[in-house]
Amino acid sequence: MIVSELALRNWTKLPARERIITDLTMLGLEVDDVAPVAGEFNNVVVGEVVECKQHPNADKLRVTKVNVGEAELLDIVCGAPNCRQGLKVCVAKVGAVLPGDFKIKPAELRGEASNGMLCSYSELGIAIEANGIIELPADAPVGTDVRDYLQLDDVVVEIGLTANRADCLSQLGVARDLAAKYQLPTKFADFKQELFAQASARVTIDEIFPVELVDDQACPAYASRVINGVNVNAKTPEWMVQYLARVGVRSIDPIVDITNFVLHDLGHPLHAFDKANLHEKIIVRAAQEGEKIVLLSGETAELKSNTLVIADAQGPVALAGIFGGEHSGVNAQTQDIVLEAAHFAPLAIVNRARQYGLHTDASHRYERGVDPQMLLVAMERATQLVLEICGGNAGPVNLLGQIPDNTKRITLTHTLLEQIAGIGYSRQQVIDILTGLGCYVTANDDHTYTVVTPSWRFDLEIPEDLVEEIIRIHGYENIPTEAPVAKLAMRQFHEADLALNRVKDVLVNRDFQEVVTYSFVEPKLQALFHPNEPTLDLPNPISVEMSQMRLSLFTNLYSTLAYNLKRQQKRVRIFETGLTFVPNPQAELGVSQELVLAGLVAGETTPESWNHKAQAVDFFHVKGIVEDLLAITNASELGEVRFAPAQVAGFHPGQTAEILINGEKVGLVGKVHPALAKPYGVSGDAYMFALEAKAISQTHVPQVQPVSKFPSNKRDIALIVKDDVLVGDLVAAARKAGSELLTDVQLFDLFTGAPLEQGTKSVALTLTITASDRTLEDAETNAEMTRVVSALTAEFGAVLREV
Fold first, then answer.
1. What region holds the TRNA-binding domain (predicted)?
2. If 313 and its partner were Cys, which of 41, 74, 280, 387 is the partner (CB 3.0–4.6 Å)?
3. What is the pTM assigned to this prediction?
4. Are the C-beta atoms of 756 and 766 separated by less than 8 Å?
């Protein structure tokens, strides 16, 4: 957005330029650039060409005598094609310095004296495209300094606007924000009153062009006006040419210039049609799929049905709120026009310009929101300018639909304001700031404010928006820069808490790599691990392969193995932590979400090396990894930890075990069933494990115990038991049966076969027996062994093996 300092001052009184630039940024209207409207020059005045004749020695030069308000006329040779007698021009007198340090000196051109120069826009550093020298209005006072006459001590300011500040897409909008900052009124109220006071006098004919408003949702209000007998070849006033150039718009013709001027000054787009090229009536409707229109740019657009168009009886004549059509556009032969001012709903315009590769000043504003209460103001202002510049006779305004009232009523509490701002405000400050922004404010007895927002502020919807406005206008720089005071409190920390990262470190130290996969899986693959289990299907999946929420981490881990094997990674050790999603009518939203740690091991136990023999991963290798994980938790303190044989879908029935703590299942470890290898694209064996995160969330707190000064006794016992007796159960029972003297029980041998009977096995255990206060006698040691053997005999039918 580009604004001119002079245009801003036309709407309100403002302080010095430097302060304006600073305050614009502090108001949130970030200033990106500030540039002068003209180059540095001096001694350039308004002159009148009194005499203009052909140069005797050059076809393209003219010899002129120019009146600059001095006693003598100046002889100046000029090569501009538009130089003529009676023209008011910009004259650089002898001694003038033009941009680029170009000094004007007396000269002789082809034998004719030249004491000065008639200047073009480019020679004065003014960004206006024109051929030849500057043509000033006929009433320009001769001898006046050109810098003063054209008000060139002005700057243009480029502002970076956020999308919510559509109200600042005009000179008036930015002036309103500055006026609110300085608690000054704008001239808009007086301007509007005077404009409408003279409205009836502008109507000199009764003609109304027929309009049919079909889509009143996309276009709630549509106003049009006929103006007959306009002179489109009239010259656009210099002040308007200068104004448009300063906001980055090129002058085209007076009708287009007037609509552009109103757009940039008041912020409301307008469009003018050539009445002679409109057939029967104007129709505001949705486009028909495949309709075509030739735009003002000459391009042909094939319309989509989601586009709002302005049409006549023969078809579309303009893209509503975006771009006009070539056939109905104003041209040099136009005599009568139909002026349009409409309010289009933002959702009816947004993204429509982009789908045709367009972006216009009008669409930029309509997409973000245009003040509907400015519709008739823009219409009257444009009419006023057309009649002044181009002449003609205007008909009454034909308004269809209803101009929407988009004001909002918001209740703001003073407590909320000070709570968010962190500083105090008086009631009068709040009222003054909000009133300055155009709000109607009522202060209530309960320290609240009832605020009715202005029609041009679409972004004010909730109390927090008003708080932001108050802070912004009051000035962020006025908020004291004080260090925050915060009371520090010790975080509640339990020594027994076990961080998940600590558990991950155990796996990382064992050569595992963490992976992160999607929570979505392919239904066919998941069904191999979870057949006939209820699942959560996504209503709008990314793809078929990601259409179901995972019931476990196994599906994605096994798929990751396949991905690595295809890339010649034969040894894979990976793990993942993530949520599983199990349908459960009793759970919140009908889904139980559990955090799980799962891992996969495939290939050899150690990386390939010259100094050891390769060994494939087996069940006991993976079971050992799980035991390492459980070793850093308080699982043993909670109770008995067991690995019980299990039959689970997707896993080998003879090499799979449930992980139990006090009889409650907390995990699984086992070999993936070979039948799953082909569907997943896996070759070779793979083992996986899973543990509920809650089962490994606590660790054992170390307890201080004295180190025994006395030797420990170790006794070995070999027991014959049935094959179905689990060794883990034997070890657990032995530890439970012993007294405080029994400090450790370990398996050191397992034997089956002859001479043992079929269906039995020999389990050899080492018992460590220690006392902290004495050396144990043989009788005490033997009694402890007897106690353990008796307990195992009673529970499992164990028999001491004879040597």
1. 38-147
2. 280
3. 0.65
4. no
Find out whether 533 and 522 touch, Cβ atoms under 8 Å. Answer: no
Handedness of CA 174, 175, 176, 177 (dihedral sign): positive
Q: Which CATH class is domain 713-800?
A: alpha beta
459 is known to lie in a ligand binding site: yes
Radius of gyration of the chain (CA): 45
Helices (H) and strands (E) in the chain, counts: 22, 39
Strand blocks (E) in 683-795: 686-692, 713-722, 742-751, 760-769
- Known binding residue 757? Answer is no
What pLDDT, in 10s, does the model give residues 9-40? 999 999 999 999 999 999 999 999 999 999 99
Element (DSSP H or E) covering residue 192: helix 188-197
- Encoded amino acid at 158, one letter: E
Q: Tell me which architecture the domain covering 500-695 has in CATH.
A: 2-Layer Sandwich (3.30)
d(CA 499, CA 443): 54
Query: What fold is seen in the domain 42-150?
Result: OB fold (Dihydrolipoamide Acetyltransferase, E2P) (2.40.50)
**Contact present, 555 and 525 (Cβ < 8 Å):** yes
What are the backbone dihedrals phi and psi of residue 325, each rounded to the nearest 5 degrees, phi first? -95, 150
Contact 67, 50 (CB under 8 A): yes
Rounded to 10 degrees, the C-alpha dihedral 374/379/384/385 comes to: 90
CATH of the domain spanning 2-37+155-185: 3.30.56.10
pLDDT tens-digit readout, 732-783? 888 888 888 888 889 888 888 888 888 888 888 898 988 888 888 888 888 8
Q: Is 637 assigned a ligand-binding role in the annotation? A: no
101, with CB counted inside 10 A (0-12, 13-18, 19+), is exposed
Tell me: domain 411-478, CATH 3.40.50.300, correct?
no
